[in-house]
Structure formats: C-alpha cells, structure tokens
C-alpha cells in the first residue's frame, strides 16, 4: 500500500497527539490539590469502604475512608519517610454527620512511631487547617476521634 506524503504527515501528527493524550492519562489524577500519593490505613472499615489506600482515593459518599462504630477510631497516614510537615488540611464529610469526627486529635510521629499531639478540634468543622511549628518533621500523621463513634473524612492533605 502506497501512502502519500500528506497522509503520512497526518498519521504522524495523529499518532503524536494520541501518544500525548495517553501519556497525560497515565499521570495519576490527584483530587483536592494534593500533590503526593501518601498511603493511609484506618482502624477498621465500614461497609464497602477500604481500610487502607492512597490519599488520592475516593470511596462511596465522596469519603476517603469510613470506620466502624468503635472506641477511638483512627486513620494513620504514612508519608514514606521523615519529612518537614508545615500543614495538615482536613475536610470533613460533606453530606452529613460532621459531629462524628469530634473530638478529633491530630498527632505526628517520626520513624519510631512515638506520637506527639499537635492539635485537637472540638467544634464541628467543614475544613480544618492544622498549621505546625517550623521545623516539625514526621513520617506518620494520625487522626483519632476521642470517643466511641464512626470516623469518616472526605480528604486529608499533608504539606
């Protein structure tokens, strides 16, 4: 089969466009402006929700995770290595039940997993920014609801 120069050029351009689209599609989509795919694990999983995953995941009801009704449910984020942490941004569930996350304790830990509290929230919130002191380093971030409840959040971002 003989292909004209014009047709060959068109096929090359189309091929380049398709390759570019496929390359862009391979880039993980990260919701909520987070730039890292940190892993999380929760104390339990309710219904069809995952007990562990990436902070970029989204389950049913636009939730990152959903624990069972239990005493002091928690979620732990693994940052992969000890890094400087400036802020932890937490978005509560958007459709209902915001009080279930309260009181919410935020802790950080290094490689040794010795946790230190950095903040506690006692009033209902949609979004909460936890600004940390300069020089704060952590490998792990843990959020714990300090009572018997279900813990479920829309998103967690660590910066």
Describe this structure in words.
The structure is a single chain. A hairpin with a 6-residue loop joins β7 (104-109) and β8. The protein has one helix at 5-26, and strands spanning 39-42, 52-54, 65-66, 70-71, 74-84, 87-92, 104-109, 116-121, 127-131, 137-145, 148-149, 152-158. Helix content is 14%, strand content 40%. The longest helix has 22 residues, at 5-26. It has one domain (31-158): Jelly Rolls, CATH 2.60.120.260. It has 159 residues and is mainly beta.
Widest β-sheet, arrangement of strands: 2-1-5-10-7-8
Largest sheet: 6 strands, antiparallel
- Average of pLDDT: 85
Q: How many domain regions?
A: 1
Content of β-strand? 35-45%
Examine the secondary-structure arrangement and name the CATH architecture.
Sandwich
The total count of helices amounts to 1
CATH class descriptor name: Mainly Beta
Roughly how many Å apart are the termini? 57 Å
């Amino acid at each position: 089969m003989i292909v004209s120069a014009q047709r060959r050029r068109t096929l090359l351009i189309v091929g380049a466009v398709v390759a570019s689209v496929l390359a862009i599609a391979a880039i993980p989509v990260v919701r909520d402006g987070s730039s890292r795919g940190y892993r999380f694990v929760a104390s339990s999983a309710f219904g069809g929700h995952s007990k562990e995953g990436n902070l970029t995941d989204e389950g049913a009801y636009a939730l990152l995770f959903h624990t069972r009704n239990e005493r002091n449910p928690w979620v732990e984020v693994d940052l992969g290595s000890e890094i400087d942490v400036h802020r932890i941004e937490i978005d509560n569930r958007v459709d209902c039940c915001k009080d279930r996350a309260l009181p919410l304790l935020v802790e950080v830990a290094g490689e040794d997993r010795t946790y230190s509290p950095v903040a506690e929230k006692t009033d209902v919130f949609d979004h909460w920014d936890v600004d940390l002191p300069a020089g704060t380093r952590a490998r792990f971030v843990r959020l714990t609801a300090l009572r018997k409840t279900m813990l479920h959040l829309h998103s967690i971002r660590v910066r």
